[in-house]
Write a structure and sequence with these properties.
Helix 8 crosses helix 16 and helix 12 runs antiparallel to helix 18. By secondary structure, this protein is mostly helical. The strands form three sheets. Strands 1-2 form a two-stranded antiparallel sheet. Strands 3-4 form a two-stranded antiparallel sheet. The protein has 18 helices and six strands. InterPro entries: MFS_trans_sf, NRT1/PTR, POT_fam, PTR2_symporter_CS. It is found in: Membrane. Belongs to the major facilitator superfamily. Proton-dependent oligopeptide transporter (POT/PTR) (TC 2.A.17) family. Pfam families: PTR2.
Length: 593
Protein backbone atom coordinates (compact mmCIF):
# COMPACT_ATOMS: atom_id res chain seq x y z
CA UNK A 1 0.00 0.00 0.00
CA UNK A 2 1.22 3.52 -0.81
CA UNK A 3 2.44 5.63 2.14
CA UNK A 4 -0.30 8.24 1.61
CA UNK A 5 -3.01 5.56 1.73
CA UNK A 6 -1.49 4.01 4.85
CA UNK A 7 -1.41 7.42 6.53
CA UNK A 8 -4.99 8.10 5.48
CA UNK A 9 -6.17 4.75 6.82
CA UNK A 10 -4.29 5.30 10.07
CA UNK A 11 -5.80 8.76 10.39
CA UNK A 12 -9.28 7.39 9.79
CA UNK A 13 -8.81 4.65 12.40
CA UNK A 14 -7.42 7.26 14.82
CA UNK A 15 -10.52 9.40 14.34
CA UNK A 16 -12.73 6.39 15.08
CA UNK A 17 -10.71 5.68 18.21
CA UNK A 18 -11.03 9.30 19.37
CA UNK A 19 -14.77 9.25 18.71
CA UNK A 20 -15.18 6.04 20.73
CA UNK A 21 -13.05 7.42 23.53
CA UNK A 22 -15.21 10.53 23.76
CA UNK A 23 -18.47 8.59 23.56
CA UNK A 24 -17.78 5.65 25.89
CA UNK A 25 -15.96 5.21 29.20
CA UNK A 26 -13.74 2.15 28.78
CA UNK A 27 -11.90 2.02 32.11
CA UNK A 28 -13.61 -1.21 33.28
CA UNK A 29 -16.46 0.71 34.92
CA UNK A 30 -20.16 0.06 34.20
CA UNK A 31 -23.36 2.08 34.54
CA UNK A 32 -26.23 1.23 36.92
CA UNK A 33 -27.53 -1.38 34.42
CA UNK A 34 -24.16 -3.11 34.03
CA UNK A 35 -23.40 -1.61 30.59
CA UNK A 36 -20.38 0.37 29.33
CA UNK A 37 -21.16 3.94 30.49
CA UNK A 38 -21.80 6.91 28.21
CA UNK A 39 -19.21 9.59 28.95
CA UNK A 40 -21.69 12.44 28.46
CA UNK A 41 -24.39 11.16 30.83
CA UNK A 42 -22.41 9.54 33.66
CA UNK A 43 -19.62 10.38 36.05
CA UNK A 44 -17.50 13.52 36.46
CA UNK A 45 -19.08 16.41 38.41
CA UNK A 46 -22.68 15.49 37.57
CA UNK A 47 -22.21 12.30 39.62
CA UNK A 48 -19.67 13.40 42.19
CA UNK A 49 -21.85 16.27 43.43
CA UNK A 50 -24.39 13.70 44.72
CA UNK A 51 -21.50 11.93 46.45
CA UNK A 52 -20.10 15.14 47.96
CA UNK A 53 -23.64 15.89 49.23
CA UNK A 54 -23.79 12.73 51.38
CA UNK A 55 -20.25 13.41 52.59
CA UNK A 56 -21.40 16.88 53.65
CA UNK A 57 -24.30 15.37 55.65
CA UNK A 58 -22.20 12.60 57.18
CA UNK A 59 -19.42 14.97 58.26
CA UNK A 60 -21.95 17.38 59.76
CA UNK A 61 -23.37 14.48 61.79
CA UNK A 62 -19.98 13.02 62.70
CA UNK A 63 -18.33 16.25 63.87
CA UNK A 64 -21.52 17.28 65.68
CA UNK A 65 -20.82 14.22 67.83
CA UNK A 66 -17.00 13.98 67.76
CA UNK A 67 -16.11 17.54 68.75
CA UNK A 68 -18.50 17.56 71.71
CA UNK A 69 -17.83 14.00 72.82
CA UNK A 70 -15.23 14.97 75.43
CA UNK A 71 -17.67 17.53 76.87
CA UNK A 72 -20.49 14.95 77.01
CA UNK A 73 -18.21 12.43 78.72
CA UNK A 74 -17.12 14.94 81.37
CA UNK A 75 -20.48 16.72 81.91
CA UNK A 76 -23.05 13.91 81.52
CA UNK A 77 -21.07 10.68 82.01
CA UNK A 78 -18.85 12.46 84.60
CA UNK A 79 -15.49 11.05 83.49
CA UNK A 80 -12.34 12.90 84.56
CA UNK A 81 -10.22 14.70 81.94
CA UNK A 82 -7.64 11.93 81.47
CA UNK A 83 -10.26 9.15 81.19
CA UNK A 84 -12.43 11.22 78.85
CA UNK A 85 -9.47 12.01 76.56
CA UNK A 86 -8.60 8.30 76.41
CA UNK A 87 -12.26 7.40 75.68
CA UNK A 88 -12.37 9.92 72.83
CA UNK A 89 -9.05 8.72 71.41
CA UNK A 90 -10.20 5.09 71.64
CA UNK A 91 -13.49 5.83 69.85
CA UNK A 92 -11.71 7.94 67.22
CA UNK A 93 -9.14 5.18 66.77
CA UNK A 94 -11.78 2.49 66.23
CA UNK A 95 -13.72 4.81 63.90
CA UNK A 96 -10.69 5.40 61.71
CA UNK A 97 -9.38 1.80 61.80
CA UNK A 98 -12.72 0.17 60.94
CA UNK A 99 -12.40 1.41 57.32
CA UNK A 100 -9.67 -1.22 56.80
CA UNK A 101 -12.40 -3.88 57.07
CA UNK A 102 -14.99 -1.78 55.23
CA UNK A 103 -12.58 -0.98 52.39
CA UNK A 104 -11.66 -4.65 51.97
CA UNK A 105 -15.33 -5.70 51.79
CA UNK A 106 -16.04 -2.94 49.24
CA UNK A 107 -13.11 -3.85 46.98
CA UNK A 108 -13.51 -7.61 47.23
CA UNK A 109 -17.21 -8.38 47.51
CA UNK A 110 -19.96 -5.74 47.80
CA UNK A 111 -18.65 -2.97 45.56
CA UNK A 112 -18.39 0.66 46.66
CA UNK A 113 -21.97 1.79 46.06
CA UNK A 114 -23.58 -1.03 48.04
CA UNK A 115 -21.02 -0.75 50.84
CA UNK A 116 -21.86 2.95 51.19
CA UNK A 117 -25.59 2.18 51.20
CA UNK A 118 -25.42 -0.62 53.81
CA UNK A 119 -22.97 1.22 56.09
CA UNK A 120 -25.06 4.41 55.92
CA UNK A 121 -28.08 2.44 57.17
CA UNK A 122 -25.97 1.11 60.09
CA UNK A 123 -24.85 4.71 60.71
CA UNK A 124 -28.51 5.83 60.84
CA UNK A 125 -29.30 3.04 63.33
CA UNK A 126 -26.53 4.38 65.59
CA UNK A 127 -27.88 7.92 65.33
CA UNK A 128 -31.40 6.66 66.09
CA UNK A 129 -30.17 4.83 69.18
CA UNK A 130 -28.25 7.92 70.28
CA UNK A 131 -31.44 9.99 70.00
CA UNK A 132 -33.41 7.38 71.96
CA UNK A 133 -30.81 7.41 74.77
CA UNK A 134 -31.82 11.01 75.44
CA UNK A 135 -35.61 10.93 74.91
CA UNK A 136 -36.69 7.45 76.10
CA UNK A 137 -37.20 7.81 79.90
CA UNK A 138 -35.82 4.37 80.75
CA UNK A 139 -32.60 5.10 78.79
CA UNK A 140 -31.91 8.65 80.02
CA UNK A 141 -28.81 9.41 82.08
CA UNK A 142 -30.96 10.60 84.99
CA UNK A 143 -34.59 11.29 85.76
CA UNK A 144 -33.64 14.77 86.98
CA UNK A 145 -32.01 17.46 84.85
CA UNK A 146 -28.81 17.31 86.90
CA UNK A 147 -27.19 14.28 88.51
CA UNK A 148 -23.80 13.35 89.89
CA UNK A 149 -23.70 9.85 88.42
CA UNK A 150 -25.50 8.60 85.27
CA UNK A 151 -27.38 5.33 85.17
CA UNK A 152 -25.45 2.35 83.82
CA UNK A 153 -28.06 1.62 81.15
CA UNK A 154 -27.51 5.06 79.65
CA UNK A 155 -23.76 4.51 79.46
CA UNK A 156 -24.26 1.12 77.76
CA UNK A 157 -26.76 2.47 75.20
CA UNK A 158 -24.69 5.61 74.57
CA UNK A 159 -21.46 3.72 73.89
CA UNK A 160 -23.34 1.11 71.81
CA UNK A 161 -24.77 3.95 69.70
CA UNK A 162 -21.48 5.74 69.06
CA UNK A 163 -19.71 2.46 68.22
CA UNK A 164 -22.51 1.59 65.77
CA UNK A 165 -21.67 4.94 64.17
CA UNK A 166 -18.02 3.78 64.12
CA UNK A 167 -19.01 0.62 62.25
CA UNK A 168 -21.11 2.65 59.80
CA UNK A 169 -18.21 5.04 59.24
CA UNK A 170 -15.97 2.02 58.63
CA UNK A 171 -17.82 1.17 55.43
CA UNK A 172 -18.95 4.66 54.51
CA UNK A 173 -15.69 6.63 54.54
CA UNK A 174 -13.31 4.52 52.39
CA UNK A 175 -16.00 3.45 49.92
CA UNK A 176 -17.59 6.87 49.40
CA UNK A 177 -14.40 8.81 48.74
CA UNK A 178 -12.99 6.17 46.37
CA UNK A 179 -16.44 5.89 44.70
CA UNK A 180 -16.36 9.66 44.13
CA UNK A 181 -12.87 9.50 42.58
CA UNK A 182 -14.02 6.56 40.40
CA UNK A 183 -16.32 8.97 38.55
CA UNK A 184 -13.27 10.35 36.69
CA UNK A 185 -11.50 8.38 33.94
CA UNK A 186 -7.72 8.18 34.49
CA UNK A 187 -7.13 7.53 30.77
CA UNK A 188 -8.96 10.68 29.65
CA UNK A 189 -6.70 13.74 29.91
CA UNK A 190 -9.46 16.22 30.77
CA UNK A 191 -11.11 13.96 33.35
CA UNK A 192 -7.74 13.13 34.91
CA UNK A 193 -7.14 16.83 35.64
CA UNK A 194 -10.64 17.15 37.09
CA UNK A 195 -9.89 14.17 39.32
CA UNK A 196 -6.93 16.03 40.82
CA UNK A 197 -9.34 18.85 41.68
CA UNK A 198 -11.89 16.38 43.07
CA UNK A 199 -9.96 15.75 46.30
CA UNK A 200 -9.70 19.48 46.94
CA UNK A 201 -13.42 20.12 46.41
CA UNK A 202 -14.29 16.93 48.29
CA UNK A 203 -12.52 18.38 51.32
CA UNK A 204 -14.21 21.74 50.84
CA UNK A 205 -17.59 19.95 51.06
CA UNK A 206 -16.32 17.98 54.04
CA UNK A 207 -15.20 21.16 55.81
CA UNK A 208 -18.52 22.89 55.08
CA UNK A 209 -20.34 20.03 56.83
CA UNK A 210 -17.79 20.12 59.63
CA UNK A 211 -18.26 23.87 60.03
CA UNK A 212 -22.05 23.55 60.43
CA UNK A 213 -21.56 20.56 62.74
CA UNK A 214 -19.31 22.46 65.14
CA UNK A 215 -21.37 25.66 65.07
CA UNK A 216 -25.10 25.03 64.53
CA UNK A 217 -25.26 21.50 65.98
CA UNK A 218 -22.94 22.32 68.88
CA UNK A 219 -24.93 25.50 69.63
CA UNK A 220 -28.12 23.40 69.87
CA UNK A 221 -26.30 20.97 72.20
CA UNK A 222 -25.19 23.85 74.40
CA UNK A 223 -28.35 25.98 74.47
CA UNK A 224 -31.25 23.59 73.75
CA UNK A 225 -30.36 19.97 74.55
CA UNK A 226 -28.17 17.10 73.42
CA UNK A 227 -31.30 15.26 72.29
CA UNK A 228 -32.46 18.09 69.99
CA UNK A 229 -29.03 18.09 68.32
CA UNK A 230 -29.27 14.30 67.87
CA UNK A 231 -32.61 14.73 66.07
CA UNK A 232 -31.07 17.30 63.70
CA UNK A 233 -28.06 15.19 62.72
CA UNK A 234 -30.25 12.09 62.25
CA UNK A 235 -32.56 13.98 59.86
CA UNK A 236 -29.59 15.47 57.96
CA UNK A 237 -28.02 12.03 57.52
CA UNK A 238 -31.32 10.52 56.33
CA UNK A 239 -31.83 13.30 53.76
CA UNK A 240 -28.21 12.96 52.57
CA UNK A 241 -28.68 9.22 52.06
CA UNK A 242 -31.82 9.89 50.00
CA UNK A 243 -29.89 12.35 47.78
CA UNK A 244 -27.15 9.73 47.31
CA UNK A 245 -29.72 7.13 46.16
CA UNK A 246 -31.33 9.62 43.73
CA UNK A 247 -27.97 10.03 41.98
CA UNK A 248 -27.74 6.30 41.17
CA UNK A 249 -28.39 6.60 37.36
CA UNK A 250 -25.48 9.05 37.01
CA UNK A 251 -22.79 6.96 38.72
CA UNK A 252 -20.04 4.82 37.23
CA UNK A 253 -19.52 1.55 39.10
CA UNK A 254 -16.56 -0.79 39.53
CA UNK A 255 -17.40 -4.49 39.68
CA UNK A 256 -15.62 -6.19 42.62
CA UNK A 257 -13.22 -8.93 41.50
CA UNK A 258 -12.58 -10.84 44.69
CA UNK A 259 -9.91 -10.35 47.30
CA UNK A 260 -7.17 -7.97 46.11
CA UNK A 261 -4.81 -9.63 48.60
CA UNK A 262 -4.78 -13.02 46.82
CA UNK A 263 -2.80 -11.85 43.74
CA UNK A 264 -0.21 -10.29 46.04
CA UNK A 265 0.20 -13.48 47.97
CA UNK A 266 0.58 -15.32 44.62
CA UNK A 267 3.40 -12.93 43.63
CA UNK A 268 5.20 -13.54 46.93
CA UNK A 269 4.86 -17.34 46.67
CA UNK A 270 6.02 -17.36 43.02
CA UNK A 271 9.01 -15.12 43.83
CA UNK A 272 10.07 -17.37 46.72
CA UNK A 273 9.63 -20.51 44.58
CA UNK A 274 11.92 -19.02 41.88
CA UNK A 275 14.39 -17.40 44.26
CA UNK A 276 17.34 -19.35 42.79
CA UNK A 277 16.75 -18.19 39.21
CA UNK A 278 18.94 -15.45 37.75
CA UNK A 279 17.36 -12.05 37.50
CA UNK A 280 17.09 -11.15 33.78
CA UNK A 281 19.32 -8.26 32.68
CA UNK A 282 16.55 -6.95 30.41
CA UNK A 283 13.13 -6.23 32.04
CA UNK A 284 11.46 -6.97 28.69
CA UNK A 285 12.21 -10.65 29.35
CA UNK A 286 9.72 -10.59 32.22
CA UNK A 287 6.22 -11.77 31.38
CA UNK A 288 3.46 -9.23 30.69
CA UNK A 289 0.09 -9.58 28.97
CA UNK A 290 -0.33 -7.68 25.68
CA UNK A 291 -2.50 -4.59 26.06
CA UNK A 292 -5.15 -6.02 23.75
CA UNK A 293 -5.93 -8.83 26.23
CA UNK A 294 -5.07 -7.08 29.49
CA UNK A 295 -7.92 -6.41 31.91
CA UNK A 296 -7.42 -2.96 33.32
CA UNK A 297 -4.36 -0.72 33.28
CA UNK A 298 -0.83 -2.08 32.93
CA UNK A 299 2.05 -0.86 35.08
CA UNK A 300 5.60 -0.25 33.93
CA UNK A 301 8.49 -2.13 35.47
CA UNK A 302 10.46 -0.38 38.25
CA UNK A 303 13.90 -1.29 39.58
CA UNK A 304 13.12 -1.37 43.31
CA UNK A 305 12.41 -4.63 45.20
CA UNK A 306 13.89 -6.63 42.31
CA UNK A 307 13.55 -9.91 44.22
CA UNK A 308 9.81 -9.84 43.45
CA UNK A 309 10.54 -9.60 39.70
CA UNK A 310 11.39 -13.29 39.73
CA UNK A 311 7.67 -14.05 40.03
CA UNK A 312 7.35 -12.79 36.41
CA UNK A 313 10.10 -15.03 34.97
CA UNK A 314 8.52 -17.46 32.53
CA UNK A 315 9.85 -21.01 33.01
CA UNK A 316 7.45 -23.06 30.91
CA UNK A 317 7.32 -21.79 27.31
CA UNK A 318 5.30 -24.75 26.04
CA UNK A 319 2.14 -24.38 28.16
CA UNK A 320 -0.03 -21.27 27.57
CA UNK A 321 0.29 -18.84 30.47
CA UNK A 322 -3.46 -18.92 31.12
CA UNK A 323 -3.16 -22.65 31.85
CA UNK A 324 -0.24 -22.26 34.26
CA UNK A 325 -0.77 -21.87 38.00
CA UNK A 326 -1.00 -18.21 39.16
CA UNK A 327 1.07 -19.34 42.15
CA UNK A 328 4.01 -20.02 39.76
CA UNK A 329 3.81 -17.15 37.27
CA UNK A 330 2.68 -13.53 37.62
CA UNK A 331 2.73 -10.73 35.09
CA UNK A 332 4.76 -7.52 35.61
CA UNK A 333 1.67 -5.52 36.58
CA UNK A 334 0.86 -7.89 39.46
CA UNK A 335 4.48 -7.72 40.63
CA UNK A 336 4.41 -3.91 40.48
CA UNK A 337 1.14 -3.85 42.44
CA UNK A 338 2.83 -5.86 45.18
CA UNK A 339 5.68 -3.33 45.16
CA UNK A 340 3.20 -0.46 45.45
CA UNK A 341 1.68 -1.90 48.62
CA UNK A 342 5.12 -2.46 50.19
CA UNK A 343 6.19 1.06 49.19
CA UNK A 344 3.31 2.74 51.05
CA UNK A 345 4.26 1.16 54.39
CA UNK A 346 7.19 3.56 55.15
CA UNK A 347 5.03 6.56 54.16
CA UNK A 348 2.22 5.29 56.42
CA UNK A 349 4.62 4.93 59.37
CA UNK A 350 6.23 8.33 58.75
CA UNK A 351 2.77 9.97 58.81
CA UNK A 352 1.84 8.75 62.31
CA UNK A 353 3.43 11.58 64.37
CA UNK A 354 1.50 14.09 62.22
CA UNK A 355 -1.67 12.11 63.02
CA UNK A 356 -0.91 12.38 66.76
CA UNK A 357 -0.80 16.18 66.47
CA UNK A 358 -4.14 16.14 64.59
CA UNK A 359 -5.72 14.13 67.44
CA UNK A 360 -5.24 17.03 69.88
CA UNK A 361 -7.67 19.31 68.04
CA UNK A 362 -10.71 17.23 69.08
CA UNK A 363 -9.64 16.72 72.70
CA UNK A 364 -7.40 19.18 74.52
CA UNK A 365 -8.02 22.16 72.21
CA UNK A 366 -11.75 21.95 73.01
CA UNK A 367 -11.14 21.57 76.76
CA UNK A 368 -8.90 24.65 76.59
CA UNK A 369 -11.76 26.60 74.97
CA UNK A 370 -14.16 25.49 77.73
CA UNK A 371 -12.00 27.24 80.38
CA UNK A 372 -11.73 30.58 78.53
CA UNK A 373 -13.95 33.63 77.95
CA UNK A 374 -16.29 32.62 75.12
CA UNK A 375 -18.61 35.61 75.28
CA UNK A 376 -19.06 37.83 72.21
CA UNK A 377 -21.55 40.60 71.52
CA UNK A 378 -24.44 40.95 73.94
CA UNK A 379 -23.83 37.92 76.10
CA UNK A 380 -23.66 35.33 73.28
CA UNK A 381 -21.55 32.35 74.36
CA UNK A 382 -19.55 30.46 71.75
CA UNK A 383 -19.80 26.70 72.42
CA UNK A 384 -16.31 25.28 73.18
CA UNK A 385 -16.48 22.75 70.33
CA UNK A 386 -17.17 25.56 67.84
CA UNK A 387 -13.50 26.54 68.10
CA UNK A 388 -12.88 23.49 65.90
CA UNK A 389 -14.74 25.40 63.18
CA UNK A 390 -11.66 27.63 62.81
CA UNK A 391 -9.74 24.52 61.76
CA UNK A 392 -12.31 23.95 59.01
CA UNK A 393 -11.98 27.59 57.94
CA UNK A 394 -8.20 27.24 57.74
CA UNK A 395 -8.57 24.07 55.69
CA UNK A 396 -11.06 25.65 53.25
CA UNK A 397 -8.76 28.67 52.78
CA UNK A 398 -5.66 26.52 52.19
CA UNK A 399 -7.42 24.10 49.80
CA UNK A 400 -8.91 26.99 47.78
CA UNK A 401 -5.54 28.79 47.65
CA UNK A 402 -3.81 25.57 46.62
CA UNK A 403 -6.37 24.72 43.92
CA UNK A 404 -6.95 28.18 42.42
CA UNK A 405 -3.57 29.89 42.80
CA UNK A 406 -0.71 27.58 43.75
CA UNK A 407 -1.40 24.65 41.38
CA UNK A 408 -1.76 26.75 38.17
CA UNK A 409 1.46 28.65 38.98
CA UNK A 410 3.38 25.46 39.85
CA UNK A 411 2.09 23.65 36.75
CA UNK A 412 3.60 26.36 34.56
CA UNK A 413 6.83 26.45 36.59
CA UNK A 414 7.46 22.69 36.93
CA UNK A 415 5.54 21.18 34.03
CA UNK A 416 4.09 18.71 36.54
CA UNK A 417 0.38 18.01 36.01
CA UNK A 418 -0.19 18.16 39.77
CA UNK A 419 1.92 21.24 40.36
CA UNK A 420 4.03 19.52 43.01
CA UNK A 421 4.44 15.86 43.92
CA UNK A 422 1.93 14.43 46.39
CA UNK A 423 4.58 13.64 49.02
CA UNK A 424 5.89 17.23 48.82
CA UNK A 425 2.38 18.50 49.59
CA UNK A 426 2.17 16.20 52.62
CA UNK A 427 5.58 17.39 53.86
CA UNK A 428 4.45 21.04 53.71
CA UNK A 429 1.45 20.08 55.88
CA UNK A 430 3.77 18.48 58.42
CA UNK A 431 5.73 21.74 58.67
CA UNK A 432 2.51 23.60 59.48
CA UNK A 433 1.62 20.97 62.12
CA UNK A 434 4.88 21.75 63.94
CA UNK A 435 3.86 25.42 63.95
CA UNK A 436 0.44 24.40 65.33
CA UNK A 437 1.98 22.66 68.32
CA UNK A 438 4.38 25.57 68.97
CA UNK A 439 1.52 28.10 68.99
CA UNK A 440 -0.58 25.76 71.17
CA UNK A 441 2.24 25.48 73.71
CA UNK A 442 2.74 29.25 73.88
CA UNK A 443 -0.98 29.98 74.26
CA UNK A 444 -1.40 27.32 76.96
CA UNK A 445 1.61 28.73 78.86
CA UNK A 446 -0.04 32.16 78.69
CA UNK A 447 -3.37 30.71 79.90
CA UNK A 448 -1.76 28.97 82.86
CA UNK A 449 -0.01 32.25 83.74
CA UNK A 450 -3.39 34.02 83.83
CA UNK A 451 -4.78 31.27 86.10
CA UNK A 452 -1.79 31.63 88.45
CA UNK A 453 -2.31 35.40 88.70
CA UNK A 454 -6.02 35.07 89.51
CA UNK A 455 -6.88 31.53 90.75
CA UNK A 456 -10.48 32.57 91.57
CA UNK A 457 -11.43 33.78 88.11
CA UNK A 458 -9.05 31.42 86.33
CA UNK A 459 -8.59 31.93 82.59
CA UNK A 460 -12.09 33.39 82.09
CA UNK A 461 -10.45 36.79 81.60
CA UNK A 462 -8.63 35.41 78.55
CA UNK A 463 -10.53 35.44 75.23
CA UNK A 464 -11.13 32.13 73.47
CA UNK A 465 -9.83 33.77 70.29
CA UNK A 466 -6.31 33.26 71.64
CA UNK A 467 -6.85 29.74 70.28
CA UNK A 468 -7.52 31.06 66.76
CA UNK A 469 -3.89 30.94 65.49
CA UNK A 470 -3.31 27.30 66.46
CA UNK A 471 -6.72 26.27 65.11
CA UNK A 472 -6.35 28.04 61.75
CA UNK A 473 -2.75 26.83 61.27
CA UNK A 474 -3.97 23.32 62.12
CA UNK A 475 -6.54 23.69 59.31
CA UNK A 476 -3.85 24.84 56.87
CA UNK A 477 -1.75 21.80 57.86
CA UNK A 478 -4.75 19.55 57.19
CA UNK A 479 -5.35 21.24 53.82
CA UNK A 480 -1.89 20.18 52.70
CA UNK A 481 -1.17 16.96 54.59
CA UNK A 482 -4.59 15.31 55.04
CA UNK A 483 -5.77 16.07 51.49
CA UNK A 484 -2.36 14.96 50.23
CA UNK A 485 -2.62 11.70 52.18
CA UNK A 486 -6.08 11.04 50.75
CA UNK A 487 -4.84 11.54 47.19
CA UNK A 488 -1.66 9.56 47.85
CA UNK A 489 -3.35 6.47 49.30
CA UNK A 490 -6.02 6.49 46.56
CA UNK A 491 -3.60 7.01 43.68
CA UNK A 492 -0.55 4.98 44.75
CA UNK A 493 -2.23 1.64 45.54
CA UNK A 494 -3.36 -0.94 42.94
CA UNK A 495 -6.54 0.02 41.08
CA UNK A 496 -8.32 -2.97 42.66
CA UNK A 497 -7.55 -1.69 46.18
CA UNK A 498 -8.69 1.92 46.09
CA UNK A 499 -11.26 1.63 48.88
CA UNK A 500 -8.56 -0.04 50.96
CA UNK A 501 -6.25 2.80 49.93
CA UNK A 502 -8.57 5.39 51.49
CA UNK A 503 -8.83 3.07 54.50
CA UNK A 504 -5.02 3.16 54.80
CA UNK A 505 -5.22 6.96 54.94
CA UNK A 506 -7.91 6.83 57.63
CA UNK A 507 -5.92 4.23 59.56
CA UNK A 508 -3.08 6.77 59.89
CA UNK A 509 -5.44 8.94 61.96
CA UNK A 510 -6.87 5.88 63.75
CA UNK A 511 -3.51 4.45 64.75
CA UNK A 512 -2.36 7.96 65.72
CA UNK A 513 -5.33 8.29 68.09
CA UNK A 514 -4.34 5.07 69.84
CA UNK A 515 -0.72 6.23 69.94
CA UNK A 516 -1.90 9.54 71.40
CA UNK A 517 -3.69 7.66 74.20
CA UNK A 518 -0.60 5.53 74.77
CA UNK A 519 1.61 8.62 74.82
CA UNK A 520 -0.67 10.30 77.37
CA UNK A 521 -0.43 7.19 79.60
CA UNK A 522 3.37 7.02 79.33
CA UNK A 523 3.88 10.76 79.89
CA UNK A 524 1.43 10.71 82.81
CA UNK A 525 3.30 7.81 84.41
CA UNK A 526 6.77 9.30 83.89
CA UNK A 527 5.90 12.85 85.00
CA UNK A 528 3.88 11.63 87.98
CA UNK A 529 6.98 9.81 89.23
CA UNK A 530 9.00 13.02 88.92
CA UNK A 531 6.62 14.87 91.25
CA UNK A 532 3.77 16.36 89.24
CA UNK A 533 1.88 14.79 86.34
CA UNK A 534 1.35 16.85 83.19
CA UNK A 535 -2.27 15.61 83.21
CA UNK A 536 -4.14 16.70 86.30
CA UNK A 537 -7.76 16.41 87.34
CA UNK A 538 -8.66 19.43 85.21
CA UNK A 539 -7.03 21.81 82.72
CA UNK A 540 -5.75 24.25 85.35
CA UNK A 541 -3.86 21.56 87.28
CA UNK A 542 -2.32 20.13 84.05
CA UNK A 543 0.79 21.17 82.10
CA UNK A 544 -0.42 20.72 78.53
CA UNK A 545 2.05 23.35 77.33
CA UNK A 546 4.89 20.90 78.01
CA UNK A 547 2.96 18.12 76.25
CA UNK A 548 2.52 20.34 73.18
CA UNK A 549 6.26 21.09 73.13
CA UNK A 550 6.91 17.36 73.25
CA UNK A 551 4.61 16.82 70.26
CA UNK A 552 6.28 19.66 68.32
CA UNK A 553 9.69 18.03 68.89
CA UNK A 554 8.30 14.60 67.93
CA UNK A 555 6.79 15.84 64.63
CA UNK A 556 9.95 17.86 63.83
CA UNK A 557 12.24 14.88 64.39
CA UNK A 558 9.96 12.68 62.32
CA UNK A 559 9.96 15.21 59.46
CA UNK A 560 13.62 14.39 58.78
CA UNK A 561 12.72 10.71 58.52
CA UNK A 562 9.78 11.56 56.25
CA UNK A 563 12.02 13.58 53.88
CA UNK A 564 14.37 10.59 53.50
CA UNK A 565 11.40 8.28 52.77
CA UNK A 566 9.88 10.73 50.28
CA UNK A 567 13.16 11.24 48.39
CA UNK A 568 13.61 7.48 47.97
CA UNK A 569 10.00 6.87 46.95
CA UNK A 570 9.19 5.48 43.48
CA UNK A 571 5.80 6.64 42.16
CA UNK A 572 3.26 4.45 40.41
CA UNK A 573 4.24 4.16 36.73
CA UNK A 574 1.23 3.52 34.49
CA UNK A 575 1.43 2.66 30.80
CA UNK A 576 -0.53 5.34 28.99
CA UNK A 577 -1.98 4.90 25.53
CA UNK A 578 -3.72 7.06 22.98
CA UNK A 579 -6.74 4.83 23.13
CA UNK A 580 -8.22 3.38 26.26
CA UNK A 581 -7.57 -0.31 26.86
CA UNK A 582 -10.30 -2.64 25.60
CA UNK A 583 -11.86 0.16 23.49
CA UNK A 584 -9.62 -0.20 20.47
CA UNK A 585 -7.76 -3.23 19.20
CA UNK A 586 -5.30 -1.40 16.92
CA UNK A 587 -1.78 -0.16 17.55
CA UNK A 588 -1.24 2.26 20.42
CA UNK A 589 1.51 4.69 21.17
CA UNK A 590 2.93 4.29 24.66
CA UNK A 591 4.23 6.82 27.12
CA UNK A 592 5.09 6.74 30.82
CA UNK A 593 3.70 9.03 33.53
Amino acid sequence: MEPKKVAAAAGKNGDLVDDDQEKWVCDSSVDHKGRVPFRSSTGVWKASLFIIAIEFGERLSYFGIATSLILYLTKVIHQDLKTAAKSVNCWSGVTTLMPLLGGFIADAYLGRFWTVLVSSIVYLLGLGLLTMSWFVPSLRACHADMCLEPRKVHEVVFFLAIYLISIGTGGHKPSLESFGADQFDDDHAEERKKKMSFFNWWNSGLCSGLLLGVTVVVYVQEHVSWGAADVIITIVMAVSLLIFIIGRPFYRYRVPKGSPLTPMLQVLVAAIAKRNLRHPSDPDQLFEYPKVVAKGRLLCHTKNLEFLDKAAILEDYETPVDQQSPWRIANVTKVEEMKLVLNVIPVWLASLPFGISVAQSTTFFIKQAATMNREIGNGFLIPPASVFGLTAVGMIISVTFYEKILVPVLRRATGNERGIQILQRIGIGMLFSIATMVFAALVEKKRLGVVEENPTKGSLSMSVFWLAPQSIISGVADGFALVGLQEYFYDQVPDSMRSLGIAFYLSVIGAANFLSSFLITVVDHVTDKSGRSWFGKDMNSSRLDKFYWLLAALVAANLFVYVVVARRYSYKNVQRSVAVADCYQGDRSRSHV
